[in-house]
Design goal:
The complex is a heterodimer.
Chain A lengths: L3 E9 L4 H16 L4 E6 L11 E9 L2 H5 L10 E6 L23 E11 L3 H7 L7 E7 L15 H12 L6 H11 L3 H14 L2 E4 L33 E4 L6 E5 L14 E5 L9 H5 L5 E3 L5 E3 L9 H5 L6 E5 L9 H7 L1 H12 L14 H15 L1
Helix pairs in contact in A: 1-4, 1-5, 4-6, 5-6, 9-10
Chain B lengths: L2 E2 L3 H7 E7 L1 H11 L4 E4 L6 H12 L6 E4 L3 H13 L4 E5 L1 H6 L1 H6 L8 E6 L13 H4 L7 E5 L2 H15 L8 E6 L6 E8 L1 H7 L27 H30 L1 E2 L5 E4 L6 E5 L4 H13 L4 E6 L1 E3 L3 H8 L4 E6 L12 H13 L6 E5 L9 H15 L7 E3 L5
Parallel strand pairs in B: 3-4, 3-5, 5-6, 6-8, 7-8, 12-13, 12-15, 15-16, 16-17
Antiparallel strand pairs in B: 1-10, 2-9, 7-14, 11-13
The chains are: A alpha/beta, B alpha/beta.
C-alpha cells in the first residue's frame, strides 16, 4: 500500500461550513496537481449543522487510487496527520450533537502530528485551553480572527488559501507550495492576491513541540452509552426533573429558580462569545431570561439573571434585548478560562467583579456571527487582508 | 471497480474531464449527459445533494430541463410518472421515509411501464431518527417490478446511472429502476470522477421512445382504466415477462457500455474481490465493500483465504449466476445492512434471498451465515469484519454457528 494522509478541519457549524469545505476541496485538488488522489467529505452526523456547533470536515489524500480505495478513506479517520482549527475558542473542547461527551480539540492528532489554529493569541495561551494528552504533537498558529460567513454568502478573506499555505509548510509530504499555486490560479478568483496571501502564510508558519502531558488538566464530560437491554422501549426518553431555588453565598438564604439542565449534552462548546452581566445595573426587566432560546438564565435569589455558562451557546439575543447600556455585553470566549457562575463571583466580592467587568468588556473584539447586514463583509475583509499581509 | 480497456489515446477522448464530486452529484452529471427532460425534487437527506447540484446545473445553463420542486415526495414521483408517460425522460429520487411517502406512486409505475431512473440515497427509516445508511428504503419495492442496483463509488454511480437509462428504456424492459447510494459514505463524500464525453453518451442512449404507449393527442389511449379480476392477472404476467428477460438484456447493455466507453465492469450482477482461491466469502451490497476489502487484504497477509462478492443488481436477482459463483466456497457470510423482521431464521433480506437461490440452483450446501450490521449509519469496522470472518471460518470447519447474528451492537 502507498502513502495515505488525513487532514481534519474543525470549524463552527454554518458560519464556517463553506470555509471548511473550500479548504478540504483545495487540499484534494492541490494534491491532485502532483498526481495524488483524494476525497473530501464532512462528518455526516454534523448535518444538518447548527449555528456555531463544532463540526468536522476531512480531506484524505493518497499516493495512488488503490491506496485511496483501500485506505478506509470514506470513513471518519480515527487519527489525522494535521488538524486545522478555524476558531481558537474551539480549543476549549468540542461537543457535537451527533456524538457523546465533550472531546478535546486534539483528540485525533496522531503522535507527532500538527495542529494549526487560526488565532490572534500565542501558543502559551492556547495551551491553557487545549487539553493535555499522552501523545506529543506540534502546534502552529495562522494569525487571524476566526472567519465567519453566512450560510449562503461567503466572506472571502483569504483564510482558506492561508491555511493551504500553512499546510504545505506543516506537511510537505502532502503537497508542495507550487501545487497550491497551481490550484489557486486554475480554480480561484483573485488569484494573484490569494497566491500572495498563501505564500506569506507558508513562509511564516512555524510550530512548537507540545510534549506529552502539557495542556489543560481539566476532565471533560464523558459517559458510556446504554446497552440495548437497558434502554426504554419505543424510542422513549425520560424528561428533565423540575428545577428549584438555590443558595445566596453571602446570606445563605435560598431563592430564585435554577432549572434542571441536561447533563448529557452541555452545549457550551457551540459558543464563540459569551454574555458578561452587570448585576449592579440590571433592572430585572426579565427580557434576557424570557428571550433566551435555550433557557440559559437562572433567576437569582436577588431577582437578577445569571447565565448558565455550561449551556449558553453565545447567540447574543440577550445582549440585543437588554434595555440597559453595557448591562449584558457579548465578549470573545477566548478571554475566559472557566464556566463559573458570574453571579457567585459578584456576590462574593462586588467591587472586584465590577472592576473585572469594566476591563473585560472594553475593547470589544468583534466576533460577528454569519451575515447580519449588507456591506458587512466589505467592512470586515480589508482588516483581515491587512492582518494576512502583516502577519 | 471497472477496468479501462481502451488504449490511452482513445481514453482521453472518451473521458473528457475530471470532477471532484459525490456519488449523488455523479448521478446529476449522468442526468445532464443523458439530457433529461423533467426532474422533480423534494429535499430529504441524503438524496438531496443531487437536487442541489442539479439546480445549480440548471441555474448555470448547463442543463436544460423542467426542474420542479414538488410539495412532497408523493407529488414528486406522481409528476414524473405523468411526464414520462407523455414522453419525457425523467429523473427523480428520495431517501428513507421520503421514499416511503411516495409508495402509492412507486407501486404503480412498473405496471404502467414508466421507465424512470430514481436515486435512492439509502437512509434508515426513521423513527428512530437517524439519517445514516440502511437498505430497507429501496428494498421496500423489491416485489413490485422495480429493478434495483447498488453502487459503491462515485465513478460506478455515474456509469451505472447511464446504464440505468439504457436498461430501463429498452422496450423489452420498460420498468422503473432505482439506483441506491449509501447515505453519507457515498452520497456525501467527494472523490475524483472521470466524466465521459457527451458524444459517447449520445451513442449509448437512443432517444426515449414510448411507441404506441405514448400519451399524446395523436395517439389516443387510456392508461390505467379500472380493471376487474378478469384482467389483473394478465397484466401481472406481462410484468413477469420483463423479469424473465431482464438478466439477458442487462448483459447486453453492459457489453454495449464497454464497447462505447471502454470501461469494463465484467459480470454486471456482482463484483468479485480475491475470490479465486478463497475458502470463505463475504456477500453484501454497497459501501461496506470498503471495510470488507481492507480486512480481506489484511487477513490475506496472514494466510487466511477470504474473498468478497459485492452484489450490484438486487433486482433482477441473478440467482443461477450467483449460486454458481458461491456454491464452491466452504462457507458464506452475508452482511445485511437491512432487517427483515419476522423472516425465516430472523435473517436480513439479502441472506434470505441468497439462501433461496442456493436451495434451487446450487449443487452443494455451504453454510450461509447472516450478519446484521451497520444499521442506522453505524460504521462497519475492520474489527467487525474480522469477527465475521472468524465466525465463518468456524462454520466452514463444521462447527455450527447461529444462522443470524448482530455485529457491532451494544449489549
Amino acid at each position: 500500500m502507498g502513502q495515505l494522509y488525513a487532514v481534519e478541519v474543525i470549524g463552527r457549524g454554518i458560519f464556517q461550513d463553506t470555509l471548511a469545505k473550500n479548504i478540504t476541496r483545495g487540499i484534494v485538488l492541490a494534491a491532485h496537481n502532483e498526481g495524488k488522489f483524494g476525497l473530501s467529505f464532512g462528518r455526516y452526523g454534523d448535518s444538518p449543522e447548527r449555528n456555531g456547533i463544532p463540526a468536522k470536515k476531512f480531506a484524505i489524500v493518497a499516493s495512488d487510487e488503490q491506496t485511496l480505495q483501500l485506505g478506509m478513506a470514506h470513513y471518519e479517520p480515527a487519527q489525522v496527520d494535521v488538524s486545522v482549527v478555524l476558531d481558537d475558542t474551539l480549543c476549549k473542547g468540542i461537543e457535537s450533537w451527533a456524538w457523546d461527551g465533550v472531546h478535546p480539540i486534539n483528540r485525533a492528532v496522531k503522535r507527532g502530528g500538527t495542529m494549526i489554529v487560526v488565532s490572534t493569541q500565542d501558543s502559551d495561551t492556547l495551551l491553557q485551553f487545549i487539553h493535555r494528552r499522552e501523545l506529543p504533537y506540534k502546534l502552529g498558529i495562522v494569525k487571524g480572527l476566526a472567519s465567519f460567513s453566512g450560510l449562503w454568502v461567503y466572506k472571502d478573506d483569504h483564510t482558506d488559501v492561508r491555511i493551504l499555505g500553512a499546510l504545505a509548510k506543516a506537511a510537505p509530504e502532502l503537497f508542495s507550495f507550487e501545487s497550491i499555486e497551481k490550484y489557486i490560479q486554475a480554480k480561484l478568483k483573485d488569484a494573484p492576491a490569494k497566491t500572495q496571501s498563501a505564500r506569506k502564510a507558508y513562509e511564516r508558519f512555524t510550530t512548537i513541540e507540545v510534549p506529552a502531558g502539557r495542556g489543560n488538566p481539566e476532565k471533560l464530560l464523558h459517559f458510556e452509552l446504554l446497552k440495548w437491554q437497558d434502554m426504554a422501549e419505543g424510542t422513549a426518553v425520560k424528561g428533565q426533573p423540575q428545577g428549584g431555588p438555590f443558595e445566596d453565598p453571602v446570606t445563605k438564604k435560598a431563592g430564585g429558580f435554577r432549572p434542571a439542565r441536561n447533563d448529557k449534552f452541555l452545549k457550551f462548546t457551540a459558543r464563540t462569545q459569551r454574555p458578561v452581566v452587570n448585576f449592579d445595573t440590571c433592572t430585572k426587566c426579565t427580557l434576557c431570561w424570557l428571550n433566551c432560546p435555550d433557557g440559559s438564565f437562572d433567576v437569582t435569589p436577588d431577582g437578577t439573571y445569571d447565565v448558565d455558562l455550561n449551556g449558553c451557546c453565545g447567540c447574543g439575543i440577550c445582549e440585543a434585548v437588554c434595555p440597559v447600556e453595557n448591562c449584558i455585553t457579548m465578549v470573545s470566549e477566548s478571554k475566559f478560562f472557566d464556566n463559573d457562575s458570574q453571579w457567585l463571583r459578584f456576590k462574593r466580592d462586588e467591587a472586584s467583579y465590577l472592576q473585572w467587568l469594566e476591563k473585560t468588556i472594553q475593547p470589544i473584539e468583534k466576533r460577528s456571527h454569519g451575515f447580519r447586514y449588507r456591506g458587512q463583509y466589505q467592512e470586515e475583509v480589508p482588516a483581515a487582508l491587512e492582518l494576512a499581509q502583516k502577519g | 471497480m471497472a477496468t479501462l480497456t481502451l488504449p490511452v489515446k482513445e481514453q482521453q477522448k472518451v473521458l473528457a474531464q475530471e470532477a471532484l464530486i459525490t456519488g449523488s452529484e455523479a448521478i446529476a452529471v449522468a442526468c445532464k449527459l443523458a439530457n433529461v427532460d423533467v426532474v422533480t425534487a423534494y429535499p430529504i437527506r441524503p438524496y438531496d445533494t443531487v437536487m442541489q447540484y442539479m439546480s445549480q446545473l440548471v441555474a448555470d445553463g448547463e442543463l436544460d430541463c423542467e426542474f420542479i420542486v414538488a410539495d412532497s415526495e408523493n407529488s414528486q414521483f406522481e409528476i414524473v410518472k405523468h411526464a414520462s408517460v407523455c414522453g419525457a425522460r425523467v429523473f427523480c429520487g428520495s431517501s428513507g421515509i421520503g421514499w416511503m411517502y411516495a409508495m402509492e406512486v412507486l407501486t404503480v409505475t412498473p405496471s404502467l411501464r414508466v421507465p424512470m431512473v430514481a436515486l435512492v440515497g439509502n437512509r434508515a427509516l426513521d423513527d428512530p431518527g437517524a439519517f445514516g445508511v440502511e437498505h430497507n428504503d429501496a428494498l421496500a419495492v423489491r416485489d413490485l417490478g422495480w429493478n434495483l442496483v447498488w453502487v459503491d463509488t462515485a465513478q460506478e454511480a455515474l456509469d451505472t446511472a447511464l446504464i440505468c437509462y439504457r436498461f430501463a428504456e429498452d422496450r423489452r424492459i420498460f420498468v422503473p429502476v432505482a439506483i441506491s447510494c449509501d447515505g453519507a459514505f457515498l452520497t456525501h463524500s467527494q472523490s475524483l470522477v472521470k466524466l465521459p464525453a457527451a458524444e459517447q453518451v449520445k451513442k449509448f442512449l437512443p432517444k426515449y421512445n414510448r411507441g404506441e404507449l405514448l400519451v399524446h393527442p395523436d395517439n389516443v389511449i387510456s392508461v390505467a382504466p379500472q380493471c376487474n379480476e378478469d384482467w389483473v392477472m394478465e397484466v401481472r404476467r406481462q410484468n413477469y415477462a420483463v423479469t424473465e428477460r431482464a438478466c439477458d438484456v442487462l448483459r447486453e447493455v453492459y457489453a454495449e457500455f464497454e464497447s462505447i466507453f471502454g470501461r469494463k465492469y465484467g459480470n454486471p450482477f456482482f463484483e468479485e474481490y480475491r475470490t479465486e482461491d478463497a475458502e470463505i466469502v463475504l456477500f453484501g451490497m454497497g459501501t461496506l465493500s470498503t471495510p470488507a476489502k481492507v480486512t480481506i487484504d489484511k487477513l490475506r497477509e496472514q494466510g487466511k483465504k477470504v474473498g468478497l462478492v459485492r452484489l450490484r443488481w438486487f433486482r433482477p436477482f441473478a440467482g443461477a449466476e450467483i449460486a454458481k459463483a458461491l456454491e464452491r466456497f466452504r462457507a458464506i457470510a452475508v452482511l445485511d445492512r437491512d432487517l427483515s423482521l419476522g423472516s425465516p431464521d430472523l435473517s436480513g433480506v439479502v441472506a434470505t434471498e441468497l439462501r433461496s437461490a442456493l436451495y434451487t440452483n446450487a449443487k452443494t450446501r455451504p453454510p450461509v451465515l447472516d450478519f446484521l450490521c451497520g444499521l442506522g449509519g453505524r460504521e462497519v469496522t475492520v474489527p467487525d469484519v474480522e469477527k465475521i470472518v472468524e465466525i465463518t471460518f468456524e462454520a466452514a470447519a463444521g462447527k455450527p454457528q447461529p444462522l443470524t447474528q448482530w455485529i457491532g451492537l451494544r449489549g
